TrEMBL record:
<feature type="domain" description="Luciferase-like">
    <location>
        <begin position="6"/>
        <end position="309"/>
    </location>
</feature>
<dbReference type="GO" id="GO:0047646">
    <property type="term" value="F:alkanal monooxygenase (FMN-linked) activity"/>
</dbReference>
<dbReference type="Pfam" id="PF00296">
    <property type="entry name" value="Bac_luciferase"/>
</dbReference>
<dbReference type="InterPro" id="IPR050766">
    <property type="entry name" value="Bact_Lucif_Oxidored"/>
</dbReference>
<dbReference type="InterPro" id="IPR036661">
    <property type="entry name" value="Luciferase-like_sf"/>
</dbReference>
<keyword id="KW-0503">Monooxygenase</keyword>
<dbReference type="GO" id="GO:0005829">
    <property type="term" value="C:cytosol"/>
</dbReference>
<protein>
    <submittedName>
        <fullName>Alkanal monooxygenase alpha chain</fullName>
        <ecNumber>1.14.14.3</ecNumber>
    </submittedName>
</protein>
<dbReference type="InterPro" id="IPR011251">
    <property type="entry name" value="Luciferase-like_dom"/>
</dbReference>
<keyword id="KW-0560">Oxidoreductase</keyword>
Length: 347
């Protein structure tokens, strides 16, 4: 498989720090996302993902529904959650939703599943946050079982048992690609390896090669559990922006990124204040923030590949609600300048 590049979005609803315009409506943001996916599909990107949040400053709480609408307007791009908070979701329902998406998209569905860094879904759906880790472990086991057999007989500790349960419709793909989202917790990398599932590294800051130890641990743990590390894939996911020059990319995107860091973090309106100099440092050649010209993004992906040996890079494009016109241009630059250059270098 050639190296893959894609984008994902959380559907933020934040005011524009440049113009002072109010946040877009949820209706407008959802239409914007469909247009972004269409352009990404036509331009040649490989993956389009949507996150899941359950607050009034995000438009997407039902990723599979929006991705299904996108499936009807695209033809080749793979469609993924980014991420499904599996700890507060019923695996049966998750499979039904993504199997439906898989049928509508002619076999293009994927999932990235995780425990969730935002935790508003736990009280909303009646789950005990103290079971944060246990819920994910058990539900990942059940989701894996559902993908591999039908009907399903299963019993766990945190969900009623299933007895010869017919879970339909079945996906077109024999197994919907399911990536485990991993942040900075080593146990999460070990878990992904134990299940033999690809790992999606979410990297929000630090050094470009700062997660090399996590990639090494993942592959070592796979071997320890009898899984061939060569058969496992790693994705690097994180915020970024692309413009014709590095200076333009940084100067344009900084106010949006800083606003998002302040307003759209876990403690609404009480997030981190990010100075421009710190933003530039994160976006430097050695930083993990992918903000720059196409050539700089190419060079950073290649340098990161030397450290991680990863198989795909997915940019959280437009972090902080960058305007649609500039976001669409960034998609084109990623597809027509970054992706071909990376593939040529990696052979």
């Amino acid at each position: 498989m050639s190296f893959e590049i894609g984008i994902y979005h959380f559907g933020e609803l934040t005011p524009d720090p440049h113009s002072g315009a109010p946040a877009p409506s949820a209706q407008q943001r959802l239409k914007d996302l469909i247009e972004q996916a269409e352009v990404a599909d036509q331009a040649g990107l490989d993956i389009f993902g949507l996150g899941e949040h359950h607050r009034d400053d995000f438009a997407v709480s039902a990723s599979a529904v929006v991705l299904s609408a996108i499936a009807m307007r695209t033809s080749r791009i793979r469609l993924s959650s980014a991420v499904t908070v599996l700890s507060s979701e019923d695996p049966v329902r998750v499979y039904e939703q993504y199997a439906t998406l898989d049928n509508l998209s002619d076999g293009r569905a994927e999932m990235i599943v995780g425990r969730g860094s935002y935790v508003e879904s736990f009280p909303l759906f009646g789950y005990d946050l103290s079971l944060y880790n246990d819920l994910f472990e058990e539900r990942l086991q059940l989701l894996d079982r559902i993908q591999k057999e039908n009907p399903v007989t299963w019993q766990g500790m945190l969900r009623p048992p299933l007895e010869e349960a017919d879970i339909s419709p079945r996906a077109l793909q024999e197994y919907i690609p399911t990536w485990v989202a991993v942040g900075g917790t080593p146990a999460s990398a070990v878990r992904a390896a134990k299940f033999g599932l690809p790992m999606a590294l979410g990297i929000l800051g630090g050094r470009l090669d700062g997660f090399k130890g996590m990639a090494d641990l993942y592959r070592k743990s796979a071997a320890d559990h009898g899984v061939d590390p060569a058969k496992l894939k790693i994705s690097v996911n994180g915020p970024g922006f692309v413009a014709e020059t590095t200076q333009e990319a940084q100067e344009f995107s900084y106010p949006y990124y800083a606003r998002a860091m302040k307003e759209n973090q876990h403690m609404q309106g009480r997030g981190q204040v990010l100075q421009y100099e710190a933003y530039q440092e994160h976006a430097s050649d050695d930083g993990a923030l992918f903000v720059g010209s196409p050539q700089q993004i190419v060079e950073k992906i290649l340098r990161q590949h030397e450290a991680y040996g990863h198989d795909r890079y997915i940019m959280q494009l437009g972090y902080g609600n960058t305007p649609q016109r500039e976001t669409l241009r960034a998609i084109e630059l990623l597809a027509t300048e970054v992706l071909p250059a990376v593939r040529q270098e990696l052979g």
